[in-house]
Design brief:
Elements: E1 2-9, E2 19-26, E3 31-35, H1 42-50, E4 57-62, E5 65-66, H2 71-80, E6 81-84, H3 97-107, H4 112-125, H5 141-153, E7 159-163, H6 171-186, E8 190-194, H7 198-204, E9 207-212, E10 215-220, H8 222-226, H9 229-234, H10 241-249
Parallel strand pairs: 3-8, 3-9, 6-7, 7-8
Antiparallel strand pairs: 1-2, 1-4, 4-5, 9-10
Helix pairs in contact: 3-4, 3-5, 5-6
Length: about 250
């Protein structure tokens, strides 16, 4: 679905690459987890995957066609590959929930009829109907994260990228978010999310990528990845509590 071949990315004020010869493939219909310590390059990779950043070297391609970085090509790419930032306030731009949902569609030049239809449907899908005219600034963090995901999903992307979606949520908000992600996945959207929540990713993901110093250090199913205890220890990563408890019983 998307391929990343030998990617490098160096920030303008840095001499060392944040993404360092990274290669990976994303297939349709899977739930991907991306884990690694702070500074491993997870957020930078998501922004490369979404097209916000252009690699210093290497190729991002979809179905064998390299991504071009002209305005029109990126416009189409943003519709296909949606990104939800860790801080939802970086993504919310309008005054009310309804206006925020319509913003991206207006930029795409959709008709008023289609915008109205999609906004109404998205308000229902994300349980935001009662908040349609509510000021965005007064939403709770959980509501803001839900709206940020809805802002992306209203564009009907094929792939949803999320950066630390469960961060700072209380248990109830976290449960609601995970339920919403499962609904999105069941509707046919491939999901890749970066997280420090190893307990969540162990239960949720079909495939996990482990990043270290801008590279993929390890990948596999959750069981395959977390069996590599020595490698994980070298990367200062723990194993999920569920696995600790099960091994303790044995």
């Amino acid at each position: 679905m998307i391929e990343f071949e030998n990617l490098f990315y160096t920030y303008p004020c840095s001499q060392k690459p944040t993404i360092n010869n990274l290669s990976l493939h994303i297939k349709e219909g899977k739930r991907y987890g991306l884990i690694g310590n702070n500074g491993s390059g997870k957020t930078t990779f998501l922004r490369l995957a979404n097209g916000l950043y252009q690699p210093s070297k290497g190729v991002v391609s979809s179905y064998g066609k390299p991504l071009k970085y002209d305005r029109q090509s990126l416009k189409l790419w943003y519709q296909r590959v949606g990104l939800v930032f860790q801080d939802p306030e970086q993504q919310l731009v309008a005054t009310t929930v309804e206006e925020d949902l319509s913003y991206g569609l207006c930029n795409l030049g959709k008709s008023n009829t289609e915008i109205s239809h999609r906004v109404t449907q998205t308000l229902q899908d994300f349980n935001l109907e009662d908040l349609a005219h509510f000021p965005v600034n007064y939403l709770s963090l959980g509501q803001k994260k839900r709206l940020a995901i809805a802002d992306v999903m209203i564009l009907k992307p094929k792939i949803l990228l999320l950066d630390e979606p469960t961060a700072y949520l209380d248990p109830k908000q976290r449960k609601e978010l995970i339920k919403q992600l499962e609904h999105i996945f069941q509707e046919g959207t491939t999901i890749l999310l970066a997280t420090h929540d190893l307990d969540f990713i162990y239960r949720w993901a079909d495939w996990i990528f482990v990043m270290d110093r801008g590279k993929i250090a390890l990948q596999g199913t959750p069981d395959e990845v977390f069996e590599q205890k020595e490698i994980l220890e070298e990367l200062d990563l723990d194993i999920p509590l569920e696995l600790k408890l099960s091994k303790g019983k044995k």
